[in-house]
Amino acid sequence: MAQWFNGGFLMYAGIDATKYELLMVAHHYSDAWAVPGDSAWNTQAAHPCAQGSTTPDRVSFMVTQWTEKLESQWVADLIGIVKNIQTKWPMVKRIEIMPSTSAPGDVPCPGTSGTETTIPAAGYAAIDSMPARYPGLVVALPHFEVTKCSDFIGNGSAPQYAPDANATSGPAVMDIVGVFGAYYAAHP
Questions:
Q1: Structural domains present in the chain
Q2: For the chain, which end, N or C, has fewer CB atoms within 10 Å of the first or last residue's CB respectively?
Q3: pLDDT tens digits for 33-47?
Q4: What's the pTM?
Q5: Separation of CA 3 from chain center
Q6: Nearest to 30 by CA among 105, 81, 104
């Protein structure tokens, strides 16, 4: 998420950069964010919003989870995340749950296992079930995909965007900036 957020998202046409901030901890997956009191929730926001940076009314959470196998495990993690968001920001009015980006068609890229670049059906089902659990509060966002396997490191062998995990520029990052920029420009 940091790659596209820091790689041009805030400059994308139609994005009001004063209204977006990023709370990100590398290699900290959804099962950890679900734990009450997890230290990640104390992370300082990168690029704090111009107003209300500590009292957001909308939170978008990108689910990154590759160890859970059962839908019930995903649901338990997502419920924990929603509760943690409500605890940290009790004034939140909208929580958006989005899966991490997947390979095109959510199919493993050629020559890869796809374990970190595809989302299992149980994961999508869990994410898509969250609005019914929290009507009027939680929204499941679309299933975002990279435009081509080469957007990922190693042509889909890792979930970060090419050319490396720290890249915030280049064609792959710009492809992803376009995916999220277009969505959020249309859904401010």
A1: 2-186 (3.40.50)
A2: C
A3: 999 999 999 999 989
A4: 0.94
A5: 11
A6: 81
